[in-house]
Amino acid sequence: MTLKAGVVAVQGDVSEHAEAVRRAGEAHGREVEVAEIRSAGTVPDCDLLLMPGGESTAISRLLHSEGIAEEIVAHVEADKPVLATCAGLIVASTDAGDDRVEELDLADVTVERNAFGRQKDSFEAPLDVAGLDDPFPAVFIRAPLISDVGDEVEVLAEWDGRPVAVRDGPVVGTSFHPELTPDSRIHGLAFFANDDVTLPDSREESVPDQ
Ligand code: GLN
């Protein structure tokens, strides 16, 4: 069965995530079709979701005003996977430390916006990530710091002694931008190598005898 991936597209970097999830699916033998989420009604049809980077205050405002926020919460309550990156993680957190962000409480983490510096301080670093054999080329752009994680949260990667990739059940969150390199292993980890998630079985793909 072809999986349907929804990319939150109210604001931020969308097409790179669409490409990355298609590539990750290919690497795991699954076909993925991508839908862009701009209004209510699309999320309930999606098997997996991506919450991209961008500007967390704008993303938060639009998710709530469009009625998409509660659909994403229901998606996670059904143990369907989410990859939330950078601003996406800020919105998915339990505490964004900013009144303009209405958190979705999808991942039990506290974040500090822009703690890694301004746009000019963007950097790339090779990261050791739990579940990946070789370091991942992580691109940090005005990235949030994860300052606190709940008891149930698994830290997948740290930079400078601080968590920068986490897993909380079906939700994987990164401070950095895994979609900005040709390497789609973080998408693979979030969607196809996460025991905590429910995805439709590929066996349903078989066509019944005519
Ligand atoms: N600084 C942005 C914010 O706080 C996040 C940056 C990003 O997603 N690259 O919303």
What fold name goes in the CATH topology slot? Answer: Rossmann fold
Q: Report helical residue fraction.
A: 10-25%
The end-to-end distance, rounded to whole angstroms, is: 18 Å
How many structural domains can be distinguished in the coordinates? 1
Q: Which percent range describes the beta-strand content?
A: 25-35%
User: Which superfamily, in CATH terms, is the homologous superfamily?
Assistant: Class I glutamine amidotransferase (GATase) domain
CATH architecture tag: 3-Layer(aba) Sandwich
Distinct bound molecules:
glutamine
How many β strands by DSSP? 11
Figure out the total of helices.
5
- Overall, the morphology is globular
Mind sketching the topology for me?
Blueprint: E1 3-8, H1 15-27, E2 32-37, E3 48-51, H2 56-65, H3 69-77, E4 82-85, H4 87-92, E5 109-112, E6 123-127, E7 136-140, E8 145-149, E9 154-159, E10 162-168, E11 171-174, H5 185-192
Parallel strand pairs: 1-2, 1-3, 3-4, 4-11
Antiparallel strand pairs: 5-8, 6-7, 9-10, 10-11
Glutamine binds at residues 53-56, 86-87, 90, 113-114, 141-142.
Write a concise synopsis of the structure shown.
With 210 residues, the chain is of the alpha/beta class. The chain has five helices and eleven strands.
Write structural notes for this entry.
- The protein has 210 residues and is an alpha/beta fold.
- The chain is 22% helix and 27% strand.
- It is built from five helices and eleven strands, in the order E-H-E-E-H-H-E-H-E-E-E-E-E-E-E-H.
- The protein has helices at 15-27, 56-65, 69-77, 87-92, 185-192, and strands spanning 3-8, 32-37, 48-51, 82-85, 109-112, 123-127, 136-140, 145-149, 154-159, 162-168, 171-174.
- Strands 2-1-3-4-11-10-9 form a seven-stranded mixed sheet, sandwiched between helices.
- Strand 9 (154-159) and strand 10 (162-168) form a beta hairpin.
- Helix 1 crosses helix 5 (185-192).
- The relative contact order is 0.18.
- Bound molecules: glutamine.
- Glutamine is lined by residues 53-56, 86-87, 90, 113-114, 141-142.
